[in-house]
Design a protein that fits this description.
12% strand, 656 residues, 15 strands, ligase activity, 27 helices, Ligase, ligase, WaaL-like, alpha+beta, five-stranded antiparallel β-sheet
Length: 656
């Protein structure tokens, strides 16, 4: 019997949906717009596909229901706060987290297509193409001064005003930059390549076990290239996510894994040791020649860093969660509501104004926390429920070559503790697609309670929560630190320790004054710069500062070799946003003054010398008045006692 017209349309629509999904896998490393169009086409055509597909989709309604529920609660919260929006529909469609629910529709559709065995080999080939495009574009962007996406779209010419790449330092005489592939940010690219790294590692182990030397070398080279680009990418949240999901997969499949690993022999152990030494030497080589990598690793133990300001973000986020635990604040309102919390911090300590201004406040930089804030606690809990099912699925995944790169999709759980990947369309859309492919490929072997998944989610969530409870217990006045640039990072840390915090932290101030910190004679005689204060005062519009700028320098009578002279140069520095914080800014000296230092407190005072706007909208025409300091007059034969520096609360030191 000849198929009916409608059945032919149905079959054709199903095929178009599948091939649109395949093209989507190729497109998402290359173009955000193209990938969204293809995802939308796959979803649209699936609606008209054979009814058998809709019968298959029932198997995936439970995990998808958790996702849709989380988005639905954000929408309900938004309706509750309807009157608080200046323009509800504009804010909801452009800024609300619930507006991204359509991305998740690709999850059950990808699962249905992946459940058909005749599609799997084709999907697997396109996943490889996708991975190679991510890797190749990342390597190319390492050596590109311009952001490749815009550079290519502009006809291989830089457009005026386009942001340049973040430099990563020279390598073999070539300038290198943070790899971003064809994406807009390095964090997005870090998310994309994270999907593949665990799978590549798994394939390398399999081929090593199978004694397939040719493929072992090939996969090993791809793994090393991926890790190099990944390390250079500087996405610390993605690093943690990839490490966590890899450890989870190995532990949950340890019995199977032990059978897949090659037996230990003296020759093989020697080869492994040689490879580890080579890898360690390579990492050390790149580390010593890459200032950006050195800075990134050094910042892992710091609270306040201009690039990693989670302390301030969470300080603004948690009060919102406590204020609206059930219904949340409503979609797209995080920035607006967190700004109210920010004002209270600034009114208490005005010096925090600039620090909080450059702190990204569009979202909570934590996936679960973000949905809990905008949609209420239950919205965040639903996401936890989905990840429980996802990690149960990962634990049940077989060690098959066709599962590349699907086992890596779980990286987003731990990585999402530090970055809102679920709000990033460029990462969220592939996440839903790859998670769907994993669900469809792996038949549900058991619906029993997963102890491994529960322990993993609980342990990582508890570890992250405990860490931030400890960090956030530090008062904002002590978490804040003025930027110091010195001859070395070690000297800068010592100088930071000599700068007194705000006046209300009396015990910490007394503690730092009583400390004795010494530096070498050469370090003591070297110039360092110290972040000062703004030329205009809070609130916005900002008024020109009227008070003189002053700082205090304390010399203890008991010190053996303190400086007896100091040269202070006041310099003007442009105010700037967080994306430029580590760049060179337009700076120029305003004046230099030398002082003789005596035991006790010494006061430096500087009066404004330039005509500045009386009233301005911050940060326009607002500058820093910062200080370059050089000590002298001490014995060069001994180590120098480093003086205490006090800028008061707002460069307003006063002698007691």
């Amino acid at each position: 019997m000849k198929p009916s017209f409608f059945s032919q349309i149905s079959e054709t629509s199903g095929k178009i949906s599948l091939h649109s999904l395949l093209l989507f896998l190729v497109a998402f490393p290359l173009s955000v717009s193209a990938s969204q169009i293809l995802a939308g086409l796959s979803i649209f055509c699936f609606i008209f596909s054979p009814k058998e597909n809709f019968q298959k989709i029932r198997s995936y309604l439970l995990p998808w229901g958790f996702i849709l529920g989380a988005y639905a609660l954000v929408f309900i919260s938004s309706l509750v706060h309807f009157e608080e929006y200046s323009n509800f529909w504009k804010t909801f469609t452009r800024q609300s987290e619930a507006g991204d629910f359509w991305l998740s529709i690709l999850f059950p559709i990808a699962a249905v297509h992946s459940s058909d065995e005749k599609n799997r080999s084709l999907i697997y080939k396109y996943l490889w193409i996708s991975f190679l495009l991510v890797l190749i574009s990342g390597i190319a962007s390492v050596f590109s001064e311009y952001r490749l996406g815009k550079f290519i779209s502009n006809g291989f010419t830089p457009a005026p005003g386009d942001r340049r790449q973040h430099p990563a330092g020279p390598l073999f005489g070539l300038d290198t930059y943070l790899p971003i592939g064809l994406m807009n940010t390095h964090l997005t690219y870090g998310g994309l390549i994270s999907f593949y790294i665990p799978g590549i590692a798994l394939l390398t182990l399999r081929k090593l076990k199978e004694k397939d030397l040719k493929r072992t070398v090939g996969f090993g080279i791809l793994l090393l290239l991926s890790l190099w680009v990944f390390l250079l990418n500087q996405s610390k949240s993605a690093w943690l996510g990839v490490f966590a999901v890899t450890v989870y997969f190995i532990l949950s499949k340890w019995k199977d894994f032990s059978g897949k690993l090659p037996r230990f022999t003296l020759a093989r152990i020697s080869i492994v040791i040689l490879l580890l030494i080579t890898l360690a030497g390579t990492v050390r080589f790149f580390y010593q020649r890459n200032w950006l990598l050195q800075r990134t690793l050094a910042q892992l133990t710091e609270i306040q860093t201009p690039e990693n300001q989670r302390y301030w973000i969470y300080k603004l986020s948690l009060p919102l969660l406590a204020k609206n635990p059930i219904l949340g604040t409503g979609g797209g309102r995080f920035k607006e509501t967190s700004s109210d919390i920010s004002k209270s911090f600034i009114e208490k300590n005005e010096q925090l104004w600039y620090e909080l201004y450059i702190t990204p406040n569009k979202h909570a930089h934590n996936d679960i926390l973000e949905f809990a804030i905008v949609g209420g606690w239950f919205s965040g809990i639903l996401w936890i429920g989905f990840f429980y099912l996802l990690f149960r699925k990962i634990a049940n995944s077989s060690l098959e070559e066709g599962n590349f790169p699907l086992v890596g999709v779980g990286f987003i759980w731990v990585a999402g503790f530090f970055q809102c990947y679920l709000l990033d369309d460029e990462v969220a859309l592939p996440f839903f697609a790859l998670a769907g492919l994993l669900w469809g490929r792996e038949k549900e072997t058991s619906s029993k309670f997963s102890t491994a998944s529960t322990i993993f989610l609980s342990f990582t969530l508890l570890l992250n929560t405990s860490f931030w409870i400890w960090r956030l217990s530090i008062p904002a006045e002590l978490a804040y630190g003025r930027q110091v640039f010195a001859s070395s990072s070690q000297v800068a840390k010592k100088i930071e320790r000599r700068i007194l915090p705000f006046r209300n932290q009396t015990s910490e101030r007394e503690k730092r004054i009583s400390e004795n910190i010494i530096v070498s004679a050469s370090e003591g005689n070297s110039e360092f710069s110290l972040e000062g204060c703004l030329t205009h005062r809070y609130p916005n519009p900002a008024k020109l500062r009227e008070e003189d700028y002053s700082l205090g320098i304390y010399i203890s009578p008991t010190w053996e070799n303190p400086p007896t002279k100091v040269s202070v140069t006041v310099f003007s520095e442009e105010s700037f946003d967080e994306d430029k914080l580590y760049w060179s800014h337009r700076k120029y000296d305003l004046g230099t003054k030398e002082l003789d230092l005596k035991p006790g407190w010494n006061s430096f005072i500087w009066k404004e010398t330039m005509e500045l706007s009386k009233i301005t909208i911050f940060p326009d025409i607002v500058f820093f008045r910062s200080f370059k300091i050089r000590f002298g007059g001490f014995s060069p034969e001994k180590q120098m006692d480093l003086p205490v520096l006090d800028l008061g609360d707002l460069c307003d030191f006063k002698l007691k």
